[in-house]
Amino acid sequence: MLELRPSCEHCNTALPPESTQAMICSFECTFCAHCATTLLQNICPNCGGGFAVRPVRPLQNWKNDNFLGKYPASAMVKYRPVDLAAHRLLLERLSAIAPEKR
Length: 102
Known about the structure:
The protein is an alpha+beta fold. It is built from 2 helices and 3 strands, in the order E-E-H-E-H. The chain has a 3-stranded antiparallel β-sheet.
């Protein structure tokens, strides 16, 4: 079950469960679309993987209790700004490799 973390790990922008601006890697590192695509250039600073748009959990119980009311979003903020100098080194190593090949 996705945690649906509440904010961008780098800039701390709010990313509520219904946000279409949340991007995640396969480990659920969570960043806003601006940070993920512009600053981080689709390379997760924590694992080196790529990002995908985080799915939005349904607000209503359409079927089998699979909705936000039963499975709420996480309230735990993981605010850990990216070390941009270290990320530049990671970008140099990985930017020429497609996310699915990393």
